[in-house]
Design brief:
The chain is mainly α and about 350 residues long. About 70% of the residues lie in helices and about 0% in strands. It contains 12 helices and no strands. Helix 8 packs antiparallel against helix 9. The radius of gyration is 28 Å and the shape is globular.
């Protein structure tokens, strides 16, 4: 080796060394350039999705399209966290929406199980309910990720002050994160397994809703808080009535064209096993759909509320009849009293 270094370099040798150094510099430069391009692309994608894709989606009422988009693009958009800042705020929406996809599957499996029970097919019913629990577990994991990214971006509501919101979309995404947290806990319970959702999440979410403007957000913050009161023993403050608050939230939702309050009202009634109230809420929602247009800016949220109430109605129908709500009969039920039909006696004509 020592002899090699003592040898004088020829012109060709010098050119070879310089070429190797140039190639090394070029390759290392390509890595830096690529990283810069990736980072810039990631920042652009995050900004575009937050400022344009999410608002565009909220103006749509196509839930299936939103579901497919979230499941398909979440890995792509989240991977930019490897080259730039973690897209925590965008992740809240991605995982809330993709969690609702898994929850929709869980509802389908539940209806299949209930239909099998109605038809006295116990093996088919058991299989469907197992699939339902698996889907709920997947939903819980996705919702939990949304809740974790919410806390990473805004701070843990249990240990931090209310954030200063930049604009309305920022505030909406904060509320979406709270919904994700509550849904994570509910899905974990429905799955009858643990995926790591802290059991105090409901109480934390309830307290955090006070950071939101209740009037601006269609009564949903108060409805969300009252749902926590109704579902968690001992959570309701002295002098409060969860169901009175839920009724007010539902009324505010009707007036604003974003009827999310009806969902909270129905969930609390289900938890109380009050089928009469559940039916009443569904009827009110159906009547409101006929009387009041959805908010153009938030059509997606209003459609989501309707979809969840249709699912609840379908469950009741399948339990009692073996089939879902018939087309055109949302808001009506199998045991409704029919209006008497006036008939003409043909005896006088004979």
């Amino acid at each position: 080796m020592n002899g090699f270094w003592k040898r004088p370099l020829t012109g060709a040798g010098v050119r070879g060394v310089l070429g190797a150094l140039a190639a090394g510099a070029l390759l290392s430069g390509c890595g830096a350039v690529n990283h810069m391009i990736y980072k810039t692309t990631g920042d652009v994608m995050q900004g575009f999705s937050r400022n344009h894709t999410v608002p565009y989606l909220m103006e749509s009422d196509d839930l299936a399209m939103g579901c497919s988009m979230s499941e398909a693009t979440a890995p792509l958009l989240m991977s930019f966290g490897r080259v730039t800042d973690e897209p925590d705020q965008l992740a809240v929406m991605l995982y809330l929406s993709s969690g609702s996809c898994a929850e929709e599957q869980a509802r389908e499996h539940e209806l299949a199980g209930l239909a099998a029970m109605y038809s006295l097919e116990p093996e088919a019913a058991e299989d469907a309910f197992i699939r339902q629990k698996r889907a709920h577990a997947l939903a819980a994991r996705r919702y939990l990720k949304g809740w974790q990214h919410h806390n990473a971006h805004y701070g843990n509501p249990d240990t931090s002050e209310c954030p200063d919101f930049d604009d309305d979309m920022d505030e909406f995404m904060y509320m979406a994160g709270l919904l994700s947290g509550l849904q994570a806990l509910n899905a974990q319970i429905q799955s009858t397994s643990s995926v790591g959702v802290p059991f105090n999440t409901g109480s934390v979410v309830g307290r955090a809703t006070q950071c939101l403007d209740n009037k601006k957000w269609w009564g949903a913050p108060m409805g969300l808080r009252a749902t926590v009161w109704a579902m968690i023993p001992g959570a309701q403050p002295a002098g409060e009535d969860a169901f009175e608050r839920l009724a007010l939230a539902a009324e505010q939702g009707e007036q604003s064209g974003v009827r999310l309050g009806h969902v909270f009202q129905a969930i609390a009634a289900l938890n109380k096993n009050d089928d009469a109230l559940v039916k009443s809420v569904i009827r009110s929602h159906a009547e409101s759909l006929e009387a009041d247009e959805a908010s153009q800016e938030w059509q997606f949220v209003d459609a989501m509320a309707t979809n969840m109430l249709v699912a609840i109605a379908d469950r009741l129908w399948v339990e009692h009849t073996g089939h879902r709500t018939p087309m055109g009969q949302f808001g009506a039920f199998w045991d409704d009293q029919r209006e008497p039909v006036e008939t003409m006696s043909l005896d006088d004509l004979l």
